[in-house]
Amino acid sequence: MKNKIIYLDHNATTPVDPRVITEVTSNFQELYANASSSYFFANNSRMAIENAKTNIAKLIGANADEIYFNSGATEGINFALKGLALHNNNSKKHIITCVTEHKAVLETCQYLESIGYEIDYLPVNSTGEINLHDLQKAIRKDTLLICLMWINNETGVIHPIIEIGKIARTAGVYFLCDATQGIGKLPIDVNDSGIDVLFFSGHKLYAPKGIGAIYINKSITKQNKIQPLMHGGGQENGLRSGTYNTPLISGLELAITLAKEEMNANKIHISNLRHFLESELLDIEGAYINGENTLRIYNTTNICVPQLDTEIFIAINKDIAVSNGSACTSAIIEPSHVLLAMGLNNIDAMNSLRVSIGKDNTLQDIQFLIQRIKLFINN
Ligand SMILES: Cc1ncc(COP(=O)(O)O)c(C=O)c1O
Q: What is the pTM of this model?
């Protein structure tokens, strides 16, 4: 029998919801026609894609023709940043982002820097928040865009996207928002938030890996202000060539719909588990929560526990999945760039554990983790 894994790393990825698996697998058999083919049999595939766009758009306050499917957030980030920056005749060469963004944003910005763009990386304070005056001050005449995440994947700290959107709108610069950790957990409306481009991945909300979506405000595409990353058959209005993955698109649609329907119940359940986890761990002498006393997403705890060498803890506890950084970098032994930016020293950063709770976790899972942490530090 397979040993049970206590999975508490939902910010890295989530298991696929069984209802989504059923939808996707049946569509592998039923919706396999190439949606771009002209024969009648492809109509169902085309309709499934259109329906998915309509439903996903509705959930974020967008229009169906503003949704484009892709492989996930990394692709969306690369497409949006490079596509807007490299747009022909672009005289605006300045970009604003933040030191605690995901590596997909930071590395793409560094690439743009290497070919002549200027990037301002806003700092954060000790609770992981940006200063909106800093943002305002950083805007220049040649600022093209602001790229700031909604929710930090390591700490769960929530950025004030409505205020950021207002600042961007007033200044006439694009606001690109990495919503990867927020979609499905909190409601969002791209209009209220003044977001011009928003990206996310399906696998963070119980859909399969390899599918994601990007919202691009029509004002950008109408005026051809973004250039594609993928050239080819001209799918997605020429902005993202490549045969549509209809089964995964329908899986993403179902996963988002379920997340929306079950959002309140999941929020209550997960918040209760996190409250229990934090109150138990904060009892340990010297323990503190990274990003405490600021708005954080309800499923994430990033806690520094003295004497908890997280690398050893993770290596020893093979039946527990928790993280000490972001999944993309966890193979590399170095302290989290997010925690260092918040002012932690190397040791505290390495002694910080990220626990990200999912809808199927139970109180027993949390008790199991707490017990193992206490056992570890008492030995
Ligand atoms: C905030 C954030 N942005 C972007 C990404 C990249 O997503 P993906 O690996 O699905 O492309 C992640 C993944 O961890 C993330 O948490």
A: 0.96
